[in-house]
Amino acid sequence: MAAVEDATADGSLDAFPAGDDESDDGGRITGPHVGQDKYGNIDHRYWRCKHCGTETTDKRALDACC
């Protein structure tokens, strides 16, 4: 599966645009953050819980966290 890249206004590329993720977590969940493979290529995005440090590629998994 190949990632589709979108050009931003400044000419850089964003493989995973953030979008409008509205939530009522009270600022506990941060992200999306960009993840890279061992070669430095952007290959995923993830979210992090500020309280316990749990990271996941599925934001919904943090709903029951902490």
Task: Please summarize what this structure is.
The chain has 66 residues and is mostly beta strands. It has strands at 6-7, 13-14, 29-36, 42-49, 55-56.
Question: Overview of this structure, please?
Answer:
With 66 residues, this protein is an all-beta fold. The chain is built from no helices and five strands. Strands 3-4-5 form a three-stranded antiparallel β-sheet, with no helix packed on it. The radius of gyration is 13 Å and the shape is elongated. The mean pLDDT is 77.
Order of helices and strands: EEEEE
Strand content: 25-35%
Name the structural class.
mainly beta
Q: pLDDT under 50 segments (min length 5)? A: none
Strand order of the largest sheet: 3-4-5
What distance separates the N and C termini?
33 Å
